[in-house]
Structures are given as structure tokens and as C-alpha cells.
Specification:
Elements lengths: L1 H12 L16 E6 L4 E10 L3 E4 L8 E4 L6 E6 L2 E7 L7 E3 L8 E13 L2 E12 L6 E8 L3 E8 L5 E10 L2 E3 L5 E7 L3 E3 L5 E10 L5 E5 L5 E6 L5 E4 L11 E5 L4 E9 L11 E9 L2 E5 L2 E4 L3 E9 L3
Parallel strand pairs: 15-25
Antiparallel strand pairs: 1-2, 1-12, 2-3, 3-4, 4-5, 5-6, 7-8, 8-9, 9-10, 10-11, 11-12, 12-13, 14-16, 16-21, 17-20, 18-19, 18-22, 22-25, 23-24
Length: 319
């Protein structure tokens, strides 16, 4: 399959002429969706070829699918078995149609409207493109999807016998930007070492500082005594060490307030060893620190504070 995709890549790339804004996910990104029936879907990139072919874990609820969208194109292609199809050209005017073969229920894509403003739990997005879908099924298949610039799909709807189902993005981390975003709150991170010689250092410190630029205090609520997490992630995206490992936290809600114009720092030291106490091997890693709390109510319910940042780490076992 990868050989097939690689052989078609040059043909597709030769068509590219514009910058792609609407299909942007990378291997470290994740987008979370919840349906009006309470079903949850997490969308990630599970594989890639070069910088343009990405294998989505779930694309518009049609399972794993290879998608092509380079930095030099507003045309998006998908792989359907052995055929590469033009899914859509986001530069096209409303009314443009594109024939695809996603089974009998999804045979055509239509650009309906552009320049929309759409609100979901993950935030309000502008310059959104609305697409509709048509097929040969009366009670199955996609009906519409919204694509936001620099984010991608933020909402879609599909038919079912029991009624239509809408999936809307509730949170995401795309291109190192977390959604929903908190207005007036900025984040700064710090790591004590980016290059570690293990013989001399067996722990590192990582900190995340939130600064409240609003004129009002910001209340944070934590579901337990754990207010943050630090993780070390290897080159294969495996978490090999956690700050919380072996720690016990009170299982009761905690609260903290960041006063207007002030900052709060979260963090600590994390061991450079795995769950078995073995020293981490030499190589490249990422240190990820995240906040484990909630901020003020948004759309009638509390939301996780959408702050998690990563920093590079290189471990060197020197003699």
C-alpha cells in the first residue's frame, strides 16, 4: 500500500498550486468529537509517507483513510483502495462538485458555502467551508461537514435509520495549539535540561506557567489532588516515564485561583527511568507537561484547561 501511495504522490504533487489551509493534521495532533448521542471519536494520524500523505485513524467516520494535502496545495485527495481521488478543492467557488467513490452512500462532494462562522464546544471558527454529500442511500451516509482553516474538520453529520447524527469537535491539539482556547491566558514552559548526560543527571525539572491577562480572576478546578502531569515520550510516541508514577493523590475536588495580572506555575521533577526503574536509553525524547483541571463554564459546562506543551529532550549515556 505504501509503495502504491508513493508512486502516485508525484502525480498528485504536480497539480498542487496553492497553500492548504483546511486539512492540516500532523502525527502529534489529536481532535476529539462527541455526537448528539454521546458517542466519542478521537481522530489522530496513525501513519504517514513524506510530508503530504497522512493516514487518518478516522476520517469523517469512514474509518482509516489515507489523505493527501501538502503545504503547497488546496486540493485534498483520498486513497480509495487503489485509486487516488480528488476529494475537494478548497479554492473552488460554492457550487463546485467533486465525484468520489466512498461506497454507494457517498458519491459526490459539493462546496455549499464559504466564509462562515461556526461555533462548537472547541471554540468559534471563522472562514469555515461547508460541504454537502450525496449518495444512493436513503438512511445512511454523510450529509454535511464543516472545515475550519488551520484546524480541519470541526463538525459533520451522517444519516441513520434512527435519525441524523451530528459529531462536533469538543477539544483538540493541532499544530501545538490547544482548543478550546482561553481568552487572555498565556502559557510559558521551562525544562531544566534539553541535553542530558545520564551519568550526571537522573531527573529533570519541567514547569508550565499560566498567566492571567484578564481584568478578572480565573478559577481553576481539579477533580483530584493532581494538578498537572509530566510525561517523557519516546520516538515511537510511547510514554516511558510519568511524574505521577507511584504517587497518591487525594480523590476530592480542589480549586485554585489565578488573580488578574498574576501567574501560577505547575511542575516538578521527573525521573529518567521507566516503570521498572531502568534508565531510559540514549536517544531523542519529548517532555510533555499538561494541566489536569477545568476552567470556567463554557456553553453551560466546564471544560478542561486546554494546555499541554512539549519540549525536546536528548539523553546520552556517556561513559
Amino acid at each position: 500500500m505504501k509503495r502504491l501511495i508513493a508512486s502516485t504522490f508525484l502525480t498528485v504533487a504536480s497539480i498542487a498550486t496553492f497553500a492548504n489551509d483546511y486539512v492540516t493534521m500532523q502525527t502529534s495532533d489529536v481532535a476529539n468529537f462527541t455526537s448528539n448521542r454521546g458517542n466519542n471519536i478521537a481522530v489522530e494520524i496513525s501513519d504517514e509517507i513524506g510530508t503530504s500523505w497522512k493516514k487518518y485513524s478516522n476520517f469523517l467516520n469512514h474509518g482509516e483513510r489515507w489523505v493527501w494535502a501538502s503545504e503547497s496545495s488546496n486540493r485534498v485527495y483520498t486513497l480509495n483502495e487503489s485509486d487516488v481521488e480528488l476529494f475537494a478543492d478548497f479554492d473552488a467557488e460554492p457550487g463546485a462538485t467533486f465525484d468520489i467513490n466512498w461506497g454507494a452512500c457517498v458519491r459526490q462532494v459539493v462546496i455549499e458555502q464559504k466564509g462562515l462562522s461556526v461555533t462548537v464546544k472547541a471554540g468559534t471558527f471563522n472562514d469555515v467551508v461547508l460541504m454537502s454529500f450525496a449518495g444512493n442511500c436513503r438512511d445512511k451516509g454523510l450529509t454535511y461537514a464543516y472545515f475550519a482553516p488551520q484546524v480541519g474538520v470541526i463538525e459533520w453529520e451522517e444519516m441513520s435509520i434512527a435519525g441524523n447524527i451530528q459529531y462536533k469537535m469538543n477539544s483538540a491539539e493541532i499544530a501545538q495549539v490547544s482548543y478550546p482556547q482561553i481568552t487572555g491566558l498565556t502559557v510559558a514552559t521551562n525544562i531544566s535540561h534539553e541535553h542530558v548526560i545520564y551519568n550526571s543527571v537522573d531527573t529533570i525539572a519541567a514547569n508550565l506557567t499560566l498567566t492571567n491577562h484578564n481584568s478578572e480572576d480565573m478559577a481553576l478546578t481539579f477533580p483530584s489532588g493532581q494538578t498537572f502531569e509530566i510525561e517523557i515520550i519516546d520516538a515511537n510516541d510511547n510514554v516511558v516515564s510519568r511524574w505521577s508514577r507511584g504517587k497518591a493523590f487525594i480523590q476530592a475536588f480542589q480549586s485554585s485561583t489565578i488573580k488578574a495580572g498574576e501567574s501560577a506555575t505547575f511542575g516538578g521533577n521527573i525521573e529518567l527511568s521507566d516503570d521498572n526503574g531502568q534508565a531510559l536509553e540514549s536517544g531523542n525524547y519529548r517532555v510533555r507537561i499538561s494541566i489536569k483541571g477545568y476552567h470556567a463554564a463554557v456553553f453551560g459546562m466546564s471544560q478542561y484547561v486546554p494546555y499541554a506543551t512539549e519540549m525536546p529532550l536528548y539523553i546520552n549515556h556517556s561513559n
